[in-house]
């Protein structure tokens, strides 16, 4: 963890609800892992008052930049859209435990919903860079919100899109989609982010089909560094249930251990 | 002139602090050593410990409000055995006084914990979080009742020699009444104060923004009320006051000292800038140089010394 004031290189609205930001991250990119996050100061005022945690959308180690794809949702993200190219942004991080990619895994399945797509996009790049086959089911309210789809396709990821707009994003429909994939291909690991319902689905499917899965969880945070105990979740360890901090022990967890509320 | 050394040392009972700045319990953990140098703090105040492990409250446990935040963490704690085995040694490696914050469900539990923690060689003082709910009195906080506060402090004083600091709740009719009860019982200092009971509702979901419905508000939103309470308590008791509530910068800390605080705790500010406490210490020093103040003790209660009339409010 370190306190960083990084220069904004690009910042633009990419759809009705989403913005994309590229920041210069010299000397920082080597240590960042997909699934980790930064706690960003969106404005220094009465409201937004607290920082906001943002997962990393892209780690560009060649250009030494990091990218965020964020949904404009409340006071913090609304304020963030006012930041201009050339200004600096105050980020604390990287925080947390990121995703694990086993060398043995050949094919991985990503199941992402909404802004969770951004979190899994960073992982997809890493998986592709390691020569793994990557299948991604991207779910969103509208086609407009599937903006990372083209980028992921460009990387060679097999992208399957489901939306409310197209009426094919029900959990049962997504389950059928996953079962179709499992009929045709051997999945070595699953990853999910952005939806409790889809996380529950991935938990069930991964356990039933005997492959490991990881989830990146989200929660309201204050300190993001393990001091305040605001962002907790329950983890099953043997017969015991343990309360852990998402910011420190996570945000990525072994999905089979997560007690889905 | 500017090279002359300035005294920032203050005393809480018989405990000397190198400077008046310390964390507010609940907003501090060992993890924060990544962001600041603990050696520079006046004291270390870890999160409140309970006798037995407890899980804490449902999420969301925090929510943002204008100029502050509401929290209802529920004192998630690993219990006193873990605290002694793991937490105290972690903090003891710093040459800074360790003030253990304790929280109990009953008066008896507070006394038992004071006996154990208060006789540990690495613990320099105890802050009793009497703002937490008293399970023997329908969940009403100990610190809402002067008689219970008196009884609790009196009994705790009998089992340990380290300074005892009572952390008062601001959610009372008269904080002076509780302050006097604690002083009469032998408290060595008072923390003024814990968070104010608060609530926020999401108008889109019609749900509370805090899992526990109500929580405590902290941050700059509460600071003027805390300054007022420090001012009132200072007039009522002779023991040192530790100001706590919404300090974001050196000016806020100085203001509390001028109102009557001997030391100042910083909580919420550390969530936004984890190096806040160090910057506040540096800012106080700069202020002293600028104002040609040699000894920080000259600032404590300065407002009263200047002959301001004691108006009835």
Question: What is the topology?
Answer:
The complex is a heterodimer of chains A (261) and B (313).
Chain A: E1 2-13, E2 18-24, E3 37-40, E4 52-55, E5 58-60, E6 65-71, H1 75-80, E7 88-95, E8 107-113, H2 116-129, E9 133-140, H3 148-155, E10 158-163, H4 171-184, E11 189-193, H5 196-209, E12 213-216, E13 232-237, E14 240-245, E15 252-254
Parallel strand pairs in A: 8-9, 8-11, 9-10, 11-12
Antiparallel strand pairs in A: 1-2, 1-7, 2-6, 3-4, 3-7, 5-6, 12-15, 13-14
Helix pairs in contact in A: 4-5
Chain B: E1 10-12, E2 15-17, E3 21-23, E4 62-65, E5 68-71, H1 79-92, E6 99-102, H2 107-117, E7 125-128, H3 146-157, E8 164-168, H4 175-185, E9 189-192, E10 196-199, E11 201-202, E12 207-208, E13 214-218, H5 223-236, E14 241-244, H6 250-259, E15 263-266, H7 269-272, H8 276-291, H9 302-305
Parallel strand pairs in B: 3-15, 6-7, 7-8, 8-9, 9-14, 14-15
Antiparallel strand pairs in B: 1-2, 4-5, 5-13, 10-13, 11-12
Helix pairs in contact in B: 2-3, 3-4, 4-5, 5-6, 6-8
Provide a short characterization of the protein structure.
The complex is a heterodimer of chains A (261) and B (313). Chain A has five helices and 15 strands.
Element-by-element helix/strand order of chain B: EEEEEHEHEHEHEEEEEHEHEHHH
CATH architecture of the largest domain in chain A: 3-Layer(aba) Sandwich
Mean of all residue-level pLDDT scores of chain A = 95
CATH superfamily of the largest domain in chain A: Nucleotide-binding domain of ferredoxin-NADP reductase (FNR) module
Main sheet overview of chain A: 7 strands, antiparallel
Radius of gyration of chain A, CA atoms, in whole angstroms: 18 Å
């Amino acid at each position: 963890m370190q306190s960083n004031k990084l220069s904004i290189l690009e910042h633009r609205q990419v759809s009705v609800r989403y913005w994309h930001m590229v920041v210069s991250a010299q000397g920082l990119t080597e240590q960042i892992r997909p699934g980790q996050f930064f706690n960003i100061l969106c404005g220094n005022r009465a409201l937004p008052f607290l920082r906001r945690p943002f997962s990393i959308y892209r780690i560009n180690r060649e250009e030494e930049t990091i990218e965020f794809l964020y949904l404009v949702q409340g006071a913090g993200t609304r304020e963030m859209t006012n930041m201009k190219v050339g200004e600096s942004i105050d980020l604390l991080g990287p925080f947390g435990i990121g995703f694990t990619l086993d060398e043995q895994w050949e094919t991985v399945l990503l199941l992402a919903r909404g802004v969770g797509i951004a979190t899994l996009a960073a992982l997809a790049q890493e998986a592709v860079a390691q020569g793994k086959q990557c299948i991604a089911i991207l779910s969103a309210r509208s086609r407009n919100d599937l903006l990372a789809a083209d980028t992921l396709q460009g990387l060679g990821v097999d992208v399957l899109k489901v939306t409310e707009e197209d009426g094919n994003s029900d959990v049962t429909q997504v389950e059928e989609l996953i079962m179709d994939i499992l009929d045709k291909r051997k999945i070595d690991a699953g990853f999910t982010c952005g939806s409790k319902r889809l996380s529950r689905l991935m938990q069930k499917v991964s356990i039933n089909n005997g492959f490991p899965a990881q989830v990146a969880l989200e929660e309201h945070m204050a300190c993001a560094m393990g001091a305040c105990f605001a962002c907790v979740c329950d983890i099953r360890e043997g017969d015991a249930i343990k309360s852990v901090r998402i910011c420190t022990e996570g945000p990525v967890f072994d999905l089979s251990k997560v007690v889905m509320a | 002139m500017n090279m002359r050394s300035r005294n920032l040392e203050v005393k809480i009972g018989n405990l000397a602090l190198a400077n008046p700045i310390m964390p507010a319990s609940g907003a501090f953990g060992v993890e924060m050593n990544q962001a600041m140098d603990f050696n520079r703090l006046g004291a270390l105040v870890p999160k409140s410990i309970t006798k037995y492990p407890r899980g804490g409250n449902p999420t969301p446990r925090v929510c943002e409000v204008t100029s502050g935040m509401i929290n209802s963490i529920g004192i998630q704690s690993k219990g006193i055995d873990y605290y002694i085995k793991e937490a105290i040694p972690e903090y003891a490696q710093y040459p800074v006084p360790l003030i253990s914050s304790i929280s109990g469900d009953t008066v008896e539990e507070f006394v038992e914990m004071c006996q154990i923690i208060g006789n540990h060689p690495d613990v320099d003082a105890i802050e009793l979080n009497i703002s937490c709910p008293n399970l023997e009195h329908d969940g009403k906080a100990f610190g809402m009742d002067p008689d219970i506060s008196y009884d609790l402090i009196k009994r705790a004083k009998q089992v340990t020699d380290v300074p005892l600091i009572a952390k008062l709740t601001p959610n009372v009719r008269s904080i002076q009444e509780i302050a006097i009860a604690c002083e009469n019982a032998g408290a060595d200092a008072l923390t003024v104060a814990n968070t104010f009971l608060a609530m926020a509702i999401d108008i889109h979901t019609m749900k509370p923004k805090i899992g526990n419905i109500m929580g405590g508000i902290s941050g700059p939103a509460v600071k003027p009320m805390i300054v007022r309470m420090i001012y009132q308590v200072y007039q009522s008791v002779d023991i040192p006051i530790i100001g706590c509530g919404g300090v974001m910068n050196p000016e806020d800390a100085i203001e509390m000292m001028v109102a009557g605080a001997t030391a100042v705790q910083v909580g919420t500010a550390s969530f936004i800038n984890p190096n806040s406490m160090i910057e506040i210490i540096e800012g106080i020093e700069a202020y002293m140089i600028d104002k040609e103040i040699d000894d920080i003790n000259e600032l404590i209660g300065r407002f009263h010394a200047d002959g301001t009339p004691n108006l009835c409010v």
